[in-house]
Design goal:
By secondary structure, this protein is α/β, with parallel strands linked by helices. Helices cover about 45% and strands about 20% of the residues.
Amino acid sequence: MRDAGAAGDGNSGGLPTVVDGAKARSLVHGSVKGKKIAYIPMTLQFELTKLWGEQFRAIFGTLGAEYSQEDAKNDVDAQIRMIDSRIDDGVDMLIIQNPDVGVLSQQVRRAQEKGIYVISVNVQGNQSSDAYVGADYTAMAKDLAGRMADDCTAAGKKKVAVVSGFATDSNSIDADKGWLPVFAARGLQVVSEQQSNYDSTKANQIATAVLQQHPDLCGFAVIFDVTSLGVAKAIESAGAQSKVGVYNLDASSVWCDALADGRVTVGAAYNASGIAVAAAYAAQELFLVGNPPGSRRVMGYVPHVLVDKKNYTTAPGACYGAK
C-alpha cells in the first residue's frame, strides 16, 4: 500500500506548498521511476490503441517506469487472462480498455485490493477505476445525428441504420443515448440496430443486408472508423456511394483517406492523442499523491469536432495515426 503523504506535506500528498522547479521535477520522476505499468487494451490493431501505446511508451520511458503492453486481439478471454497475470505479477498500475461495462469489474476490484492503480481509457466499466479518460460518446453521437438529420431532410429521406460495437460496451450504450433521441425528434426512422463487435467484415455484412432491405436508406450511424470502412465497402458494392451516407465516431488517418475518396461522409473527431496524454498525467498524479488504489476515482472527457471534406485537413484531432 502506498504512503499518501510521501511526496507532499503531512498527509495531503502531491507537491509541498512551496517548491522549486528542480525539486518538483525530482518528486514527479521519483514517484514514477521503477514503477511497473502495463497497458492491456482490447487490441493493439486499431490506429487508436496503437497510438496510445506509442505515447505511453515514450512518456513512461522518459519518467523511468517499466512499461509493457499486450495485444488481446479483441479476444475478451485473452484480455482477462493477461490482466489477471499482471495482477498476480504485482504491477503498480494497469491501463485498460473495457470491452463490456461489466466484464472487467472483478479484475478492477482485485487489482485495487492488491494495491494496484487502474486507469480506463475511452471505454468505461461499471466498476470505477482510479481514473477514466475518454471521448464523450453521448455528446458526439448527438452532434453527429443532428448533422445526419440535416442531410437526410435535405435529401428527402427518413430511413437510417445504426451499426454499434458490442452493444454492452459503454461506447455503444452512450452513443445510443445521443443519436436515438435526435433521430426520433427529427422524424427519422431507425430501420436497423445491429452490433459489429468492431469487426469490419461483420459491419460489411450488416450493411449489405440492410441496403438490400432498404434501398431508400439515407445513411448509417456507425461507431469507430474500422467499422465505418466495412459499411462504406458495402455501399460501394451496392452502387449507392453517392446516395447513402456514412456518419461515424472517430477519424483516423485511414478514415480521412476514405473521406477524401468519398467513401464516408462525416466523422466526429476527438482528441485521440489527448486521451493518452491525459491518462499518462493521471498516472503521474496517482503515483505522486499516493492515495490508496480505489480510494479516489476521477474521470474526464476530451473535446471533439465534426469533420467532413471541408475541414478534415485542419480540424484538431482528425486524421491521427501513421499513413
